[in-house]
Write a structure and sequence with these properties.
alpha/beta, Dna Ligase, domain 1, Nucleotidyltransferase, domain 5, six-stranded mixed beta sheet, five-stranded mixed beta sheet, globular, binds adenosine-5'-triphosphate, binds magnesium ion
Length: 410
């Protein structure tokens, strides 16, 4: 049996810094050894704006994770987000050379077709984050899983390409390296979360994973088993808290408490229900109209789902998502958010659940840990692909391709 291996996943979120330490056992199953969480400061809309402050919070989360897991963390798989991260789909196509009368497709041909698919003009300040294979076609034939060894004259490949602004991505990496902690891989957050939140069956039937965080809402959509769209909207749960604070004229911390304890994304007529605040020197004695509170929440949450709908329907039909929509991230804990998403997107919406890990049980219940947990599964997949490839550096494209085609979280 293969040896077990330990990995750490890190998300520096706008609200929370999460570190998960997981052990991949010899039989391939994952055991969570420990989790560290610290409130995040110095991060705005998923991007680090104040290095020193963010590093202090990061240290707190790392120390907690080390203590809980009894593992010294020297390297991490790092999730990144931010509304500068964009995606597109592109096709590459090559003619297979004839060798001794045979046109046999090789690994090198697939490398070449991938490079052709990546031959697109990105904005000058951007870099590739992921190039994810969607489908191969040989001589126009429908979807071929692995064309290596087959005969054919023309190979085409559809790639989902994710890119972002280089300096902004480097910022997050630098923040971690200065701790000092080594960064093994950088992964777009929803791609990591999907590794544990969506099952293979969901990806095959078509599904949309929405991660509502504090500063941003990340999403990834799968059709026919592979990534069709992904991106990041610069609005999250903290915007809701901020709106409540502005309209109700109460401090942010009190707005957050109000949102969590009494708020709903659905505007129901509460028959003139009011909430009387009893705590805090600035808020004690204040009367909050519950209907107004829900209207504020509803307006922002509606904006998030409308923006998402506009983005998705620009390229795809929502009806193709047979498995529906899955919500995760701290914002998914908001009361009524699933019903509102259902109304706007016109699809069944469920709260995503992690079902494929063992160990400390509490983390499975917490959607705020989805991304960091997903990073452990991602690390496992990268490593198993790595061990299959002798020449790791030249196989990076295929490595990622393998993950996103044949991934399974069952
Ligand atoms: N019980 C709850 N009800 C409503 N909202 C909640 C609840 N718990 C947390 N939230 C909200 O979830 C958000 C934080 O979620 P999360 O920890 O996933 O964000 P993050 O990963 O730190 O941020 P981001 O991914 O945007 O950078 C905050 O806006 C917070 O108010
Ligand atoms: Mg997040």
């Amino acid at each position: 049996m293969a040896k077990s291996k330990i990995y750490a996943g890190l998300e520096i979120g706008t609200s929370t810094i999460c570190v998960v330490v997981g052990e991949v056992l010899g039989n391939g199953s994952i055991k969570i050894l420990g989790v560290g969480q610290a409130p995040s400061r110095g991060v705005r809309k998923g991007e680090i704006v104040d290095f020193e402050t963010a590093q202090t919070c990061l240290n707190d989360a790392l120390v907690e994770a080390e203590e809980k897991s009894d593992v010294e963390i020297s390297s991490v798989y790092l999730a990144v987000s931010g509304s500068h991260i964009e995606s597109l789909c592109n096709k590459g196509s090559i003619r297979i050379p004839e060798v001794e009368g045979i046109n046999e497709i090789t690994e090198e041909d697939l490398d070449e077709v991938r490079e052709i698919a990546r031959d697109i003009k990105l904005p000058s300040e951007n870099v590739f984050l992921h190039s994810i294979i969607r489908d191969y076609y040989v001589d126009g034939q429908e979807k071929v899983q692995n064309p290596v060894g087959r005969q054919g004259e023309v190979v085409e490949a559809d790639y989902h390409i994710i890119h972002g602004i280089k300096t902004r991505l480097q910022n997050t990496i630098r923040c971690v390296r200065e701790i000092p902690i080594n960064v093994e891989e950088v992964v777009f957050s929803p791609i990591a979360a999907a590794q544990v939140m969506l099952k293979r069956e969901h990806k095959d039937r078509g599904s949309l994973l929405i991660d509502i965080g504090g500063g941003v809402t990340d999403y990834v959509m799968y059709t026919g088993g592979s990534v069709a769209q992904s991106g990041c909207i610069g609005v999250g749960g903290d915007h809701i808290t901020n709106d409540i604070s502005v309209v109700m004229k109460i401090p942010l911390t009190r707005s957050e408490k109000l949102k969590i304890e009494h708020g709903s994304a659905l505007v129901e007529d509460d028959g003139g229900d009011s909430i009387f605040l009893e705590d805090g020197p600035l808020t004690s004695g204040l009367e909050i109209d519950k209907e107004l509170l829900n209207q504020i929440i509803n307006a922002r949450a509606t904006e998030i789902f409308e923006q998402l709908k506009d983005r998705i329907t620009k390229y795809d039909d929502l009806d193709t998502l047979g498995a529906g929509v899955f919500l995760t991230g701290g914002g998914s804990k908001l009361k009524g958010i699933d019903k509102l998403a259902e109304e706007i997107l016109g699809l069944p919406v469920s709260l995503a659940r992690i079902s494929s890990m063992s160990g400390a049980s509490a983390p499975f219940e917490n959607p705020q840990l989805a991304t960091s947990m997903g990073l452990i599964r991602y690390a496992q997949m990268i490593d198993s692909d790595r061990s299959e490839n002798d020449n790791m550096m030249t196989k990076i494209g295929k490595k990622l391709g393998g993950i996103f085609r044949g991934d399974s979280v069952d």
